[in-house]
Please model this.
Amino acid sequence: MARVGEIAYKTAFIGRWYFWYNLELALLHAVAPKATPLWLTRQLADEARSLDQERQELQVKIFGLIRNYGSVCAACGACCKENVQRFTAFDAAVRTGGPMPLQRYGREILSLPWMVSNGIQHTWQRVMHAVTRTPMPESAVCEHLGKKGCTLGHQERPMLCASWFCPKYLRHIEHRDLKRMAPLLRDMERLHFRAARLMRRGNHSLRHSK
Model:
């Protein structure tokens, strides 16, 4: 019975933190304004710095929890081989008040059309690979991917890289680690919502400063 319970928990975890979490971020991203210069007011800049400190601490905890499962990603690497910017407007917003604000970020990776088309493309490639046994096509890799993995420290990676896990990866994580990961992902989820609110307030300040 314990094994059945673990399987049920993992299935629910994948549904919650793969399917729903991705959809949730895409919808939140669609209605959020673009990242704005939050240094327009001292209060917004201070809040951004506070959120960024929370982000860094969360990412260290998450990467520390999953460090024993790095071989799963290393054996696949598909996520790091997408030709798309992984830093989003949420990353830009929380880092605005810090000493090194993001110079570049993208909106594509959290857009529903890109998610759907990318999923269809990869599914088709896997089907053709299984049927014809032809090699999977090569694609451009993340600019931060080096010979030994990501060249960014855990604190400096995009929030998506710290909180996005594919079903294949999640199937390898032990039950006790999934239970420890759930509250960290909830904190990361809340951080995205708080970043979106900060972006709206920054956008409001920008309009009224003109």
Residues 61 and 181 are 9 Å apart (CA to CA). The longest helix spans residues 175-208. Residues 2-208 form one domain. The chain has one domain: 2-208.
